[in-house]
Amino acid sequence: MKRKRKRMFHVLHQSAGLVFAFAVIAAALMTSFEIAMYADFNVYQKEYEKYDVLSDLDMTMEDTMYVTREMMAYLRGDRDTLSVVTTVEGVEQDFFNEQDRFHMGEVRELFIGGLKIRTGACVTAVLCLLLLLALGADVKKVLPRAYQRALALCGAAVLILGLACLIDFNAVFVQFHHIFFDNDLWLFDPAEDYMIRMLPEGLFYDMVIRIGGLFVGILLVLLAVSFLPRITARFSAPCGDRRGRS
Q1: What is this structure's pTM?
Q2: What are the beta bridge partners of residue 87?
Q3: Are 45 and 63 contacting, i.e. CB atoms less than 8 angstroms apart?
Q4: Mean pLDDT of the 105-115 span
Q5: Which of 126, 132, 145 is nearest to 230 (CA)?
Q6: Ordered DSSP codes for 81-109
Q7: Which of 133, 129, 144 has its CA nearest to residue 231?
Q8: Distance of CA 128 to CAs 9, 20, 55, 152, 184, Å?
Q9: What is the pLDDT of residue 244?
């Protein structure tokens, strides 16, 4: 009976630890998106220069960045409508058309949904931590091991997706839209639509690389942190204990 109870607690500890770890990884992913998209708007300016977007739009950089900031504010939920009057091709007009507004409305739902997922993931991680403490678990052992296991699974998925993007980003980009959108209004005609001229596929590729780099960086930092309890325990042990374990 005692052994059975001990095993039950062990399973609870491991399960709560894994849920905690996956929640932390989910929060890290959503945070990587937010940092990549909002931390430094100079990134967009560099991208516009790289792909000569201003020539395609016949706009100034100042006006293009104004449109960008307003568009990103809309995606984050900081403004209610996507309507930005500016000078395009020498004419003062609304930069966005109805198709733009419809598609970006769907993108906004995805982005805000991602932020809600991050909030839920953080709450879940805290609840799992509290549960582990209430169960008397050794969190310095349970959580690092759980994170390392969860990272092995997520790392494999990230690696596969990363290779797919490097091999054929267009195919991944198209498949992403088929998965998350139930219409073809994400397909734009550059001859008619200003937004797609401002956001060429190369810009999305660079942004995915930026997000991926941030995500991997955060995961590696957390991995290093997960080894700290073991390292600390090893170097704080008496010399005799260290020799005995070597």
Answers
A1: 0.88
A2: 92
A3: no
A4: 96
A5: 145
A6: ----EEEETTEEEES--HHHHHHHHHHHH
A7: 144
A8: 14, 6, 53, 20, 41
A9: 47
pLDDT tens digits for 112-161?
999 999 999 999 999 999 999 999 999 999 999 999 999 999 989 989 99
The mean pLDDT value of the chain amounts to: 91
Residue 145's identity, in one-letter code, is: R
Among residues of the chain, what percentage have pLDDT more than 90?
83
Residue 6 identity = K
Task: Determine contact, residues 76/38, Cβ cutoff 8 Å.
Answer: yes
Identity at 215, one-letter amino acid code? F
What is the rounded CA–CA span in Å between residue 47 and residue 36?
Answer: 13
Contacts of 145 (CB under 8 A, 6+ apart): 17
Q: How many CB atoms lie within 10 A of CB 37?
A: 18
Residue partners of 157: CB distance under 8 A and separation at least 6: none
